[in-house]
Amino acid sequence: MIIVGATAQQRNSSISLGSSLSPTGSTNWSPDSGHFAFGFYPKGNGFAVGIWYTRTLPQTVVWTANRDDPPLSANSTLLWSSEGKLILQRNQGLDAIAIAPGSASSASILDSGNFVLYNSDSQIIWQSSDSPTDTLLPGQPLLTDQWLISSLSKADHSSGEYKLVMQDDGNLVYYPLDVQNACWSSKTAGAGDNVTLHLDNKGQLYLMALAST
């Protein structure tokens, strides 16, 4: 798992309907600040679709779509269709990168590293931060029943062997994937189902109990 510390304002870059990306052409979309990018990055002998932090060398991948799929070929295309669907075209057919309740009318990659789809009322209908892979970004909470799964290596972001879970009893627990016994816990079981894990822009990682309504 990765905890990325970066001070980021919520500037964004709006993506036009009909835009597309490919590994050999225009490879990514990024906000004006250039802190993060969304698009194709190298994976093994091919490519994957994800989000990465651009201000480090090598660049730090923070989210990957369909992370356990085989590498994509160079003739794959990521299409932001005129119907508001984010579609991956590859040799095996079509895959949806973002499954949203209805069609989106606009999309943005925010300066926080979050990739967001909006409906015609400018309401968020899908965002990458709701389905984290191995990384927690500043300002991104890990909510109840969400988890991070480690990557196999720095170069291979397929699912690894460990899982960090924000349980519905308020306990943050670190498990090996293949066994039920925890390696570590925050020892906050019984705190309730409104506890979330937060990373702030100062790099402080903490649990917070949200006020009940």
UniProtKB/TrEMBL annotation:
Keyword Amino-acid biosynthesis among UniProt keywords: no
InterPro entries on file: Bulb-type_lectin_dom, Bulb-type_lectin_dom_sf, G-type_lectin_kinases/EP1-like
Domain of life, per lineage: Eukaryota
Pfam families associated with the record: B_lectin (PF01453)
The protein's name in its UniProt record: Bulb-type lectin domain-containing protein
Keyword field: Glycoprotein, Signal
Bulb-type lectin domain boundaries: 12-130
